């Protein structure tokens, strides 16, 4: 399958929790273990004055990190999070946002991941690190 076919397939099979955030996988590099997603977040995900609620910010970061892993390790069928840390650096406003995920290290059963959320002004709005369990196809 070509890279364009994999992008199209990933975008066709986004889970509902990402579809509602108007998510689109823009790019990935399976060798480098990276993925870039774009979100068009409406004000319905804000808690006050157009500021996106932190749980929704976390969803975007988690999605970027997990896509980086799923597109690198094609035999992984599930990726339960064991630990997740999010740092909120700038207010995240509704609108177009970009999340980048990276696989830092992946073993047989555990992966270490990092994510960055960029706001419309190009500033890093939030970062995340995650430890996840790899559930592989038998």
What's the layout of helices and strands?
Blueprint: H1 3-12, H2 16-19, E1 24-29, E2 34-41, E3 46-48, E4 51-52, H3 54-72, E5 76-78, E6 81-88, E7 95-106, E8 110-118, E9 124-133, E10 135-136
Antiparallel strand pairs: 1-2, 2-7, 3-4, 5-10, 6-9, 7-8, 8-9
Would you report the number of β strands? 10
Number of domains: 1
> Which consecutive residue ranges, at least 5 long each, have pLDDT under 50?
none
Number of helices: 3
Distance between the termini: 22 Å
CATH superfamily: Hotdog Thioesterase
Global morphology: globular
The helix content is 10-25%
Second CATH tier, the architecture? Roll
N-to-C series of helices and strands: HHEEEEHEEEEEE
Share in β-strands: over 45%
Strand order of the largest sheet: 1-2-7-8-9-6
Largest sheet, described in full? Answer: 6 strands, antiparallel
CATH fold topology: Thiol Ester Dehydrase, Chain A
Structural class: alpha+beta
Mean of pLDDT:
96
Model description:
By secondary structure, the chain is an alpha+beta fold. The chain has one domain: Thiol Ester Dehydrase, Chain A, CATH 3.10.129. It has helices at 3-12, 16-19, 54-72, and strands spanning 24-29, 34-41, 46-48, 51-52, 76-78, 81-88, 95-106, 110-118, 124-133, 135-136. It is globular.
């Amino acid at each position: 399958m070509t890279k364009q076919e994999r992008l199209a397939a990933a975008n066709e099979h986004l889970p509902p929790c990402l579809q509602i955030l108007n998510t689109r996988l823009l790019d990935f590099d399976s060798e480098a273990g990276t993925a870039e997603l774009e979100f068009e977040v409406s004000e319905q995900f804000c808690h006050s004055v157009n500021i996106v609620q932190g749980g929704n910010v976390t969803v975007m970061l988690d999605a970027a990190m997990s896509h980086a892993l799923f597109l690198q390790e094609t035999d992984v069928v599930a990726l339960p999070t064991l630990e997740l840390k999010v740092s909120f650096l700038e207010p995240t406003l509704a609108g177009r946002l970009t999340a980048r995920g990276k696989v830092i290290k992946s073993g047989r059963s555990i992966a270490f991941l990092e994510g960055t959320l960029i706001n419309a002004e190009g500033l890093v709005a939030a970062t995340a690190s995650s430890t996840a369990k790899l559930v592989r196809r038998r």
